[in-house]
Design brief:
Layout (H helix, E strand, L loop, with lengths): L1 E2 L8 H9 L10 H10 L15 H4 L17 E3 L8 E3 L2 H12 L6 H19 L7 E6 L3 H15 L3 E5 L7 H12 L20 E5 L13 H14 L8 E5 L21 E5 L13 E5 L5 H7 L12 E4 L28 H14 L7 E7 L5 E7 L2 E3 L2 E7 L3 H8 L2 E8 L4 E11 L2 H10 L2 H9 L9 H14 L12 E15 L7 E10 L2 E8 L9 E2 L4 E2 L6
Helix pairs in contact: 1-13, 5-6, 6-7, 13-14
This protein binds ligand LZDS7PUF, flavin mononucleotide, pyridoxal-5'-phosphate and potassium ion.
Amino acid sequence: MRMLRPKALRSMSSSLSQSIKLLIPHSTATVIEAADTAASLRVPRRATPSHSSLPLSIFGRRAYSSLSQCPPSRRCFSLGVKMGEESISYLTQKEAAEIDEILMGSLGFSVDQLMELAGLSVAASIAEVYNSKDNGRIIVLCGPGNNGGDGLVAARHLYHFGYRPFICYPKRTAKPLYSGLVTQLESLSIPFLLVEDLPQNLSDRFDIIVDAMFGFSFHGAPRPPFDDLIQRIALLNDIEKNTRSSPAVISVDIPSGWHVEEGDINGEGIKPDMLVSLTAPKLCARKFAGPHHFLGGRFVPPSIKDKFGLRLPAYPGTSMCVRIGKTPTVNISALRENYVSPELLENQVLADPTDQFCKWFDEAVAAGLREPNAMALSTSSKVGKISSRMVLLKGVDKQGFVWYTNYGSRKAQDLSENPFAALLFHWNSLNRQVRVEGSVERVSFEESEKYFHSRPLGSQLGAIVSKQSTPLSGREVLHEAYRELEAKYADGSVIPKPDYWGGYRLKPILFEFWQGQTSRLHDRLQYSLREVEGRHSWHIDLAVNVASIKGLNNTTSDLHFISSL
Ligand SMILES: NC(=O)C1=CN([C@@H]2O[C@H](COP(=O)(O)OP(=O)(O)OC[C@H]3O[C@@H](n4cnc5c(N)ncnc54)[C@H](OP(=O)(O)O)[C@@H]3O)[C@@H](O)[C@H]2O)[C@H](O)CC1
Ligand SMILES: Cc1cc2nc3c(=O)[nH]c(=O)nc-3n(C[C@H](O)[C@H](O)[C@H](O)COP(=O)(O)O)c2cc1C
Ligand SMILES: Cc1ncc(COP(=O)(O)O)c(C=O)c1O
Ligand SMILES: [K+]
């Protein structure tokens, strides 16, 4: 049997939380929880709708009301943003400079280090919202100070993320740090454009403008050539605001030209779509009304947080950035992709659907998809009440598709009443879907036990403590039981598989391979198991999304057409 290697890094906490989340009431939202929620709601990068392909109401800044002001708190200014009752901290210009000094003084950081992390978090924030396929052309406008340096670093990371950056860096700083950054970009053949060479209409050439001209040391009125550049970006707001062709403007730390504390004083400045605040947002960020506010610069040690009384959202997982505030709402009805794929031809697929599945599975792995073995499992109770959930495929061969779960769970109860189920794989970036239907039975005790012991120890303990699908009196109960078991098996002794945990195998009687095509005229090939003269064999039906046309036959397939528009 083709075993799918257990994914060692799926953490125990994530597996447990699936079954308890719904059953425990939400606690009062704090800044951190709210930020985590926002972060967890982020759309995966590849699936993220492009800025330019969505209607105005989605990304248009008019759709977002300004944030209301709250009384200052402790040393830093704070504001009730739409992320729960708590608030986050905003820095004055003086505080920002002071933090900078402490970081690079007593705390031992070098400017190179901080700039690298700042630039990386800018690139990471951009990649969270704007995919490289639709928004590849980026112009990074760099100023003379460290904000400009952040822009140079961000450009390098964006290049490695698959974007096509261009740089405009009119006032170069003659310091090794900056010339090194320039050399690195030149070695990647990233073009440097003179201000005079920039197209008058930036929309013609670029999908994204990164404003890395000025940061928290900006003062007074912008001097040439930045005055003109700032004006051109500001004009984009007026002339092409919210049009499909308007590039997205991303400001690094401060929208250039804005007063660091007061913001866009005369209302004629840049109105960025995204602001990436570094270390902590500066006071002007209160006036930011665009849809995407991120925090980057994941290097602030607790001593700084304590000294300045900083309240900041937690970074999720290993991320270099975190969204501040509400995730923008989207016009769901306008969300759509046009699928463009090679044809899926009935005379080119493999005769056996399991072989065809394995071929597609290998291609999904080769394409770098995250968890291509994640599949929706639909079961039904004896009265026909259907439920679906995701499970992980753990093995596949001609005998069937295997997954593991709790035998006391709802799905297990369903399967005991109705041993038929459907599996669904969706490999989004390949425009592919596979349906599998069939009868289900438990795998042998030995097979389950072998697999159980191949899992990370945490997951083995998790399987013991989790009475899946059963309401809990509180999270702590589960964690306490886990800790007790952890102590019990701390000596390294074998953790016995509980009786109530094991595998299932679905033996297919039907497959459908779906390849998305333009205008919703998708290719669908159905394999069904048929009995001819006492022998079972697979028949391929072609099912495309046009109105029913019957009676087409050829030697390899029975063809019929099904509409599923
Ligand atoms: N710890 C952190 O938070 C980190 C922040 N980083 C980034 O650094 C900037 C702050 O960098 P800094 O170099 O102090 O300042 P700026 O990038 O804002 O630029 C200062 C230069 O700009 C000139 N300037 C100022 N005002 C004007 C103006 N009106 N017109 C034209 N030029 C202007 C200034 O020249 P002066 O002669 O006026 O002094 C400087 O040349 C911060 O915002 C973050 O982006 C780090 O990268 C990581 C750590
Ligand atoms: C990507 C993903 C993979 C999952 N894999 C499994 C799995 O292999 N086995 C399992 O029991 N639950 C898995 N879960 C959790 C299930 O979706 C579900 O919450 C749990 O099994 C309880 O389902 P039930 O109450 O309908 O039986 C997974 C969830 C996700 C999101
Ligand atoms: C509850 C539960 N059980 C089992 C699994 C499968 O985990 P593993 O890959 O360790 O077998 C998952 C995966 O998310 C899960 O959430
Ligand atoms: K800036």
